[in-house]
User: Which sequence fits this backbone?
């Protein structure tokens, strides 16, 4: 009974919320169904468009993109439908299990609810199924489109248009007509320009002239002084050459390109370009821009006449020849393009295309042969380390082969193939040259000592206390980064150029950069590079912080230099550890698998590294507790000297012989270490002196005290004391026990005191005796009596 | 030049060795091996999961058909268990 009431309550609550939600749900499902219908319609349209025979390659490319988008949309809809499905599932489960007939069955409302939810669930499931089928269909259509495109491309490339007598005849016959037509188009244009609307033309021309003047002014101001560098007749560092080449190329090229654009846009805006003339003028503008760029680039890179600025170190003769040849090549290429645009605009017969292709490809092959025949290097000693000695064999022979293919296919009538090949050679060649320059730059940066000479390197050394070695290593890192950059831009460009699909290349790049798995470890190059960068930045920041600390903060405290050094070193270690940790986080290297190996090795490592870790910990203790500081005079065992440096593992001691002793820190912690300067620099000096038994000991004492008082290196407190030590075998032994103000003076004071004692004793006649012996001889007759008897006999 | 040659090899090496990393984790909590069909980027493939084993599929979203016939779309960051041939979210 109670159960029944509970169920009713739940059901009513659910109905209230459920009614609303259900309305939403069924609306949602209906929306999704509508989406599916739309998707299916789009798919049909695309399918039809792609499979038609007359579809152009451009349309097919567009269709492919559209299909990819469609796939994404479909998947998004599927996700929503799946979510709805899960929701319906959850709600059905919330209703509880179906009570069986024995307890009276279910309340009608709940049963109805259950039914409706099941319906929604069923519809959603069907939707998802349909959507999955659509995704599969789209994917196979994309493959079909790709196949169609390759087929069409192959057909086009291998199309044969032989130069038969028919072609010649057609050219001859239509020549006059074509010229007339062209003439007509241009005279129409001239008429348009000079028509009563003089204003427009005048405005256009004036604007263009003004802009041209400005461009020329800019170019002269910036570019020509740069190229007046022949006056700097000295070997230039490689990067400066590259940079100069870039600027001398970009400035004029960009200016000319801007000029062309402005001119074209002006004329177009003022409607001074009838349709056919428009295409021709646009092509002309592009051609001028590209030719300018190629010309300036060639001149900058090959630098004929300015060998210290040459970016690719060929001989002078080669530079001149290559500049001319490459310019001619680009003129041929440009002329061919322009002529093609004219033909397209005038809808000239195919014969002209064939003729033009024949001429341009043969000329191209000729010039390319001349380029290959140029001797690149000379036995002279120019640019000794990156001198170009000659054509690389892997480039030279394939190029000759390509030339042969071009000539062969042109003569055989396969003009499209020839044109395709020549275009590919030019573009790929340009990319390869660019990559070559990039690699040379990388080598220049990584070269020993090169980084140190650069401005960035000098800044790091001067301002941030980087050592020469670190800057050198930084140069290596930069070099590697440049190589990586060059490769990742150059290689995909070449691949794209040779027809690999853009998204294939993109997905390869994404995989390479985004990361790949080796077993269980995920390695990502971008992450690793980022981690290295983060680490270096962290180190630099630590260094900067240390310097700031040392200069601004610690000078204001009253700590001595040893303490400051300790704090600075401690901050440095902390910074290093932080930088390393953050860099490891960035790199995404999961260390948990390494932990297993580390655990296994840790026993052996533990034993081996025992001492090192001991030393390291002792070093930290030394830093914190500071029983010894830099500059203290310490005694360790039988070694003594001044502390020069306290590092992580060991401490450097400089003995009085100027010998450096490196003592492991553990020894300093575990053994007794005498430090003359721990508390203060006061130390005791004991000078022993022996005085003859004949001397007056009171006098001796007074003299010694006087001597002590005379030396002001001897401290007044604790009081000096002359100690009558012993009745020695040969002498009375006195000790002068004094405390010195600075224990470092001990040798000097002791020596000086001995000098003074000698002097004083000499003046007062006190003797420092040699070792003495009283000898008593046992005889029958005492010696004195024997001597007296002897004397009596004489 | 040697160090540069090595640096040169790395990206090329990476390009050809790259394999994608997967993100939807499926754990088989049943007592017997289960077969699922994964439709990713329009391509269907069959995967088999041993009992109490986990596999990872789908870097960017896919459809998965479970042994009990359930077909669902996943975004690429879910963790799923198979119970009685059907899917359930792990949490």
Assistant:
């Amino acid at each position: 009974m109670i159960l029944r009431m509970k169920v009713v309550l739940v059901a009513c609550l659910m109905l209230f919320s459920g009614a609303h939600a259900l309305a939403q749900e069924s609306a949602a499902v209906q929306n999704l169904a509508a989406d599916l219908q739309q998707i299916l319609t789009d798919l049909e349209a695309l399918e039809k468009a792609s499979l038609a025979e007359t579809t152009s390659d451009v349309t097919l490319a567009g269709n492919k993109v559209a299909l990819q988008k469609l796939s994404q949309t479909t998947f998004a809809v599927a996700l929503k439908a799946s979510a709805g499905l899960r929701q319906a599932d959850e709600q059905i489960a919330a209703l509880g299990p179906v009570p069986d007939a024995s307890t009276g069955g279910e309340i009608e409302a709940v049963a109805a609810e259950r039914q409706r939810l099941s319906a929604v669930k069923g519809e959603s499931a069907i939707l998802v199924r349909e959507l999955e089928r659509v995704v599969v269909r789209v994917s196979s259509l994309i493959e079909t489109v790709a196949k169609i495109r390759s087929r069409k491309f192959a057909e086009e490339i291998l199309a044969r248009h032989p130069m038969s007598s028919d072609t010649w005849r057609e050219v001859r016959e239509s020549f006059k007509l074509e010229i007339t037509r062209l003439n007509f188009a241009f005279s129409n244009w001239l008429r348009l320009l000079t028509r009563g609307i003089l204003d427009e033309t005048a405005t256009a021309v004036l604007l263009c002239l003004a802009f041209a003047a400005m461009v020329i002014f800019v170019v002269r101001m910036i570019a020509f002084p740069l190229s007046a560098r022949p006056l700097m007749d000295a070997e230039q560092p490689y990067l400066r050459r590259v940079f100069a080449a870039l600027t001398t190329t970009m400035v004029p090229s960009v200016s000319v390109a801007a000029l062309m654009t402005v001119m074209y846009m002006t004329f177009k805006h003022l409607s001074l370009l009838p349709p056919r003339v428009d295409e021709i003028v646009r092509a002309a503008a592009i051609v001028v821009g590209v030719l300018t760029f190629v010309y300036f680039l060639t001149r900058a890179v090959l630098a004929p006449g300015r060998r210290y600025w040459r970016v690719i170190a060929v001989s002078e003769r080669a530079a001149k020849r290559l500049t001319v040849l490459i310019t001619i090549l680009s003129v041929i290429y440009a002329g061919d393009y322009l002529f093609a645009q004219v033909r397209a605009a005038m809808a000239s017969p195919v014969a002209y295309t064939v003729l033009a292709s024949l001429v341009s490809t043969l000329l191209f092959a000729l010039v390319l042969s001349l380029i290959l025949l140029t001797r690149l290097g000379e036995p002279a000693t120019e640019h000794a380390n990156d001198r170009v000695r000659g054509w690389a064999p892997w480039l030279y022979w394939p190029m000759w082969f390509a030339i042969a293919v071009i000539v062969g296919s042109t003569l055989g009538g396969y003009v499209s193939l020839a044109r395709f090949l020549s275009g590919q050679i030019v573009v790929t060649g340009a990319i390869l040259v660019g990559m070559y320059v990039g690699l040379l730059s990388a080598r220049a940066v990584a070269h020993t000592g090169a980084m140190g000479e650069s401005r960035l390197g000098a800044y790091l050394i001067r301002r941030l206390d980087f050592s020469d070695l670190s800057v050198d290593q930084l140069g290596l890192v930069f070099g590697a980064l440049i190589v990586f950059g060059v490769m990742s831009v150059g290689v995909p460009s070449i691949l794209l150029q040779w027809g690999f699909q853009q998204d294939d290349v993109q997905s390869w790049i994404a995989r390479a950069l985004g990361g790949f798995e080796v077993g269980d470890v995920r390695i990502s190059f971008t992450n690793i590079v980022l981690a290295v960068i983060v680490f270096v930045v962290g180190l630099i920041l630590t260094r900067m912080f240390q310097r700031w600390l040392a200069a601004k903060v610690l000078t204001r405290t009253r700590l001595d230099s040893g303490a400051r050094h300790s704090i600075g070193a401690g901050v440095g270690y902390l910074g290093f550890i932080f930088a390393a940790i953050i860099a490891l986080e960035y790199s995404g290297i999961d260390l948990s698998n390494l932990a297993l190996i580390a655990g296994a090795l840790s026993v052996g490592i533990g034993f081996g590294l025992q001492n090192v870790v001991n030393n390291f910990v002792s070093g930290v203790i030394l830093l914190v507790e500071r029983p010894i500081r830099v500059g203290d005079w310490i005694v360790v065992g039988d070694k003594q000297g001044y502390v020069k440096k306290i590092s992580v593992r060991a401490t450097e001691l400089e003995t009085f012989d100027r010998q450096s002793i490196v003592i492991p820190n553990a020894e300093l912690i575990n053994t007794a270490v005498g430090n003359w300067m721990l508390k203060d620099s006061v130390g005791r000096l004991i000078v022993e002196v022996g005085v003859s038994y004949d001397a007056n000991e009171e006098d001796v004492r007074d003299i010694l005290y006087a001597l002590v008082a005379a030396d002001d290196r001897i401290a007044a407190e604790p009081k000096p004391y002359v100690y009558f030590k012993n009745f020695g075998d040969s002498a009375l032994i006195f000790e002068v026990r004094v405390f010195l103000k600075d224990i470092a003076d001990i040798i000097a004071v002791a020596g000086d005191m001995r000098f003074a004692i000698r002097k004083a004793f000499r003046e007062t006649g006190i003797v420092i005796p040699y070792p003495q012996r009283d000898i008593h001889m046992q005889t029958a007759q005492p010696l004195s009596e024997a001597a007296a008897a002897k004397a009596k006999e004489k | 030049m040697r160090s540069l040659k090595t640096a040169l090899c790395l990206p090329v090496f990476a390009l050809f060795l790259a394999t994608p990393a997967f993100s939807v984790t499926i754990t088989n909590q049943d007592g017997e091996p289960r077969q699922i069909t994964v439709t990713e980027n329009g391509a269907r493939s069959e995967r088999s999961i041993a009992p109490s084993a986990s596999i990872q599929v789908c870097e960017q979203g896919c459809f998965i058909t479970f042994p009990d016939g359930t077909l669902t779309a996943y975004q690429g960051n879910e963790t799923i268990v198979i119970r009685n041939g059907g899917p359930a979210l792990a949490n």
About this structure: Helices of chain B lie at 2-17. Residues 20-89 of chain B form one domain. The first strand of chain B starts at residue 24 and ends at 28. The beta strands of chain B are 24-28, 34-40, 43-49, 54-57, 62-65, 71-74, 79-83, 86-89.
